[in-house]
Structures are given as structure tokens and as C-alpha cells.
Amino acid sequence: MRKIAVVGLGVAGSYLVSRLSTEYEVVGFEMCSYADYYPPCAWATSGSEMQKLLSPVGLNFEDYVFYKGKEMCVDLGSSRFWMKLKGLCTFDKLSLERDLVDGHNVKFGVHIKSTEQLNDEYDLIIDSTGFPRALLPKLSKDYIIHTLEYKVKYNKMPIDDFYIKPMNAGYIWFFPLGDSYAHVGCGDYFGRQRYFLDAFMREHGGEIVKRVGRPLRITPPPMCQPYYAGKVVGVGESIGTVLSVLGEGIIPSLYCAEIFLKNVQDLEAYTAEVLRRFSPYKEVFDVVADKISGRFSFARDFSKLLKVFRYMKREEGHIGVEVRMADIIKIFFSKATSSIR
After folding, report:
1. Which domains does the chain have, with CATH numbers?
2. Each residue's pLDDT tens digit, 188-236
3. 299 SS3 class
4. Which member of 8, 103, 316, 324 lies 3.0 to 4.6 Å from 13 by CB, making a disulfide possible if both were Cys?
5. Which of 142, 23, 91 is nearest to 250 (CA)?
């Protein structure tokens, strides 16, 4: 193998351009122009875990941190509680992704819709396009959270730390960026994100300086096969590496990229290791789907919820939040109103 194309320069694609370029001839492609590109997520992650993941590319994650949280307010409407944070922070995702590809052969403003556009020039093509899954076979069943986010400037911050308001089909978030800015967003399975988000804005005010919206795949990796077809292989959200209960995909996508790097010459081994690493995502998704549909029952589904808790407890390091069973129960038994289809 000599030449590799990386299509999609989000966090996984940018990381792979940086890592693979030490051994292969790599070209990265991004459909947005360099000036217009803006990563569409809340820019929150676990600082300690990101520090480890970035060590092979020589970047210091601390250089990108905007705000380090202490606790997260969880607003259930009729009540609130606070979760202790374990390294959760917001960071300059745009600068990080640009620095990962700096000095490498990347082409912005080039929309790769099919492998034919790349001719026979590449031995391997990585689909890191995220939700579009542009170059892999389409999924027969796909589950999507619709998201909308505003970057908001405040004269006085209305909330002094991380904040979420769970709903049965998504949640509202307020994540501080420092210097009187925050990312304020909403994800909702039923497409009501603008309604909920604008209601939050009317209550708390602020000047909207940036709007970003996009679908987010919550279909877990076991339901996103195939991971490769011909010379195309998927990495990151294109194969479902988003933890559905949180909508968090930054660190999982980097985990997926690491698995790919270990198995770049053996895609069967890559498939097997992705399935092993992300098998709990299917269990988490099943509970989330029951929650959205209104089918969740404490008596019937407690064992499933317990598995979700145990997994999240083991993964506190990458989630960045202290996970307690009592808190999980409160969130899953908050008010539910709609059904999944």
C-alpha cells in the first residue's frame, strides 16, 4: 500500500492525516473551504484522555483548552442536581483540527461524492465524512438526532458552569467557552431542536454570533456495517462511533482511528476489533431507544440500565463526568413525551 485518501477532515480524519503521513503518501479532502469550516459540535471532551491521544502527534492538549468545568447542572424541569466533573472541558476544536493537518497535503473546498472522483490514484480511501457516510453503502436503518447550536456572547454569563437539560428524545446544553462565550445547543430526535433552543435563548438572552446545525448519527457500530467496501473503509461517525446517551463522538472517533492505525493492512481484523471495542454502544442505544419510545420500564429494563451504568462508570476517564447510578435513574425517569420510529 502506497497512497491513501482521507475524505472528511473532522477530528478523526485530521488525526489520521497526521498519523498516516509518517508512513504513507496521504491526501486529505474536505468539502468546506478552509475559511468557512467550523466543527459542528459542542467542543467538549475529557482533557486527560485527549492529552494521551494527542501525544503521538506531538500536540499539547492544554494549549487548546478554553474552560475546565467543576460540576454540571442537570435540569429536570421540576428539580435539578449536580454531577461532579472529572476533566470535562471545552477546547478550541477548530484550531486543533487545523494544527493536525498543518504541513500535510490537504485540499479544502473539494466535495468528494463518489470514489470515481478519486480515479484509481489511491490504494485506500478512508470515509471519515461523519453523518453523510458519503463513500460507504447506505445503512438500511439509521437513527438520527437533529442538532442545532449557537455560539453566544454574553455581557454576563447566565450559567456559571456546564449545564444540560435532558429530554426524552435529546437534551439542551450550555457549555462555557470562556471570555463571555458559550456553545448553546439542542439535539432532538423529532426535529424540535430550534423550538427548544430558541425558548432557552429567550429565557437567558445573549448575542448569537454563529449558528451551526447538522444531523448526528446515534446508530451504534454493530448496526453500521459494513465498515469497508472495496478500497473504502469507514472511521469515526461514518460507522457510528457516537455514544448515544451523550451524543459524544470526539474521543470514541479517535479510539476508532487508533484501531484503524493498528489494522490498516487487515480490514477484517479492523472490523473485529471495532465490534469488540464498541459492542457496549449497542446496549446503550437500546436503552436510549426505549427511553425515546416511552417503552422504558424500570421493572423490565433495570438490568439493561445497570449495564449502561457499569459501562459509563468504567469509562469515566473519557466521559469526563463522575457517574452515579442514582443520577442515571433520575435522568432516565425524567418526563418522556414522544416515540421513536
Report:
1. 3-332 (3.50.50.60)
2. 999 999 999 999 999 999 999 999 999 999 999 999 999 999 999 999 9
3. helix
4. 8
5. 91
